[in-house]
Design goal:
This is Transcriptional regulator, TetR family. GO terms for molecular function: DNA binding; DNA-binding transcription factor activity. It is built from 12 helices and 4 strands; from the N terminus they run H-H-H-E-E-E-E-H-H-H-H-H-H-H-H-H. It has 293 residues and is mainly alpha-helical. The chain folds into 3 domains: 64 residues, Orthogonal Bundle (Arc Repressor Mutant, subunit A), CATH 1.10.10.10; 45 residues, Arc Repressor Mutant, subunit A; 136 residues, Tetracycline Repressor, domain 2. The strands form 2 sheets. The protein has a two-stranded antiparallel sheet with strand order 1-2. Helix 7 crosses helix 9 and helix 8 packs antiparallel against helix 12. It is flat, with a radius of gyration of 22 Å.
């Protein structure tokens, strides 16, 4: 069966697999443009695009006098003292989902698994690596549909997929970095799927990266409120809309000064409205380039 992905994405997937499997380790040189051309039988433009995509999602970086190398983000081992990595991650994920990141620790995970804390410390770099693992696992849960036609529809779906991940895991936005992305499979998959929306739009690498980062940052920035809203709903027993309706009886005259009666606003409506306005703004960046072609 033929792989439906564009050639450059097949190259990206293969190199990312080599990194994940340990064939290519942090600091190792990445195949050059010409090496990729020979191995895959592609044009220089395709090889260059593949390397640019890997750099955009943080999988590789440029090293002086060496060229492109695997970024210094250590992929965790697949086992820890006889424990399957997936068991460790699943236990940590369940703790974070139930009680938040504040409750997550190596000791808590070890207790949940019924092992000594030192068993985990031998393989994992304490909580810092553990949080990277659960963030990656949360993104790995995403099931990607066939990309819809048009860059706007594609980016909208990408934003909705990210938003849904944050709703499943309210702690997740705090672990997503825009300027220091972690090179792990689940996060890479999201980045590559999203960047496909910009293929063929005659955008320079810098503009592509800023569009992607702006989209991710908008969704993340809105989603940081989910965790506090969940807590507020538990404390009050009311959704934000129910709480607003209840406040009308107390602050009705004051609220009427800034909003029409019956106006409703919650995180979902705020996310949807803001997303469409962001896409409107990106039209001003993308459409002129399409017209010039």
């Amino acid at each position: 069966m033929n792989d439906p992905r564009p050639p450059y994405l097949r190259i990206v997937a293969d190199i990312e697999r080599r990194i994940a499997d340990g064939e290519l380790r942090p600091g190792d040189p990445i195949p050059t443009t010409r090496a990729i051309m020979r191995e895959w039988g592609v044009a220089m433009a395709t090889a260059t695009k593949a390397l640019a995509a890997l750099k955009q999602v943080g999988a590789i970086e440029s090293a002086p006098r060496v060229g492109a190398v695997v970024a210094p983000r250590r992929l965790p081992s697949r086992s820890a003292g006889g424990l399957e990595r997936d068991r460790i991650v699943r236990a940590a994920l369940e703790i974070a989902d139930a009680d938040g990141l504040a409750a997550l620790s190596m000791r808590a995970v070890a207790a949940k698994l019924g092992v000594a804390t030192m068993t985990l410390h031998r393989q994992l770099e304490a909580k810092a690596e553990l949080t990277q693992l659960i963030a990656d696992a949360a993104f790995a849960e995403i099931s990607y549909p066939e990309p819809p036609p048009g860059w706007r529809s594609h980016l909208r779906v990408a934003a909705q997929l990210q938003w849904a991940a944050y709703q499943r895991h309210p702690w997740l936005p705090r672990l997503v970095s825009i300027t220091r992305p972690v090179t792990l499979p689940g996060l890479l998959a999201y980045g590559l799927w999203t960047l496909r929306a910009l293929d063929g739009l005659d955008l320079d690498p810098g503009t592509r990266m800023h569009i992607y980062a702006t989209m991710v940052n908008y969704v993340r920035g809105t989603a940081v409120n989910i965790e506090s809203e969940v807590g507020a709903e538990l404390d009050t027993g009311m959704t934000s809309r129910q709480w607003s309706a209840a406040r009308l009886s107390v602050d009705g005259p004051l609220i009427a000064q800034v909003a029409e009666p019956g106006t409703e606003l919650d995180l979902e409506s705020l996310f949807t409205f803001g997303l469409e306005r962001l896409l409107d703004g990106l039209t001003m960046v993308i459409t002129p380039r399409q017209v010039r072609r």
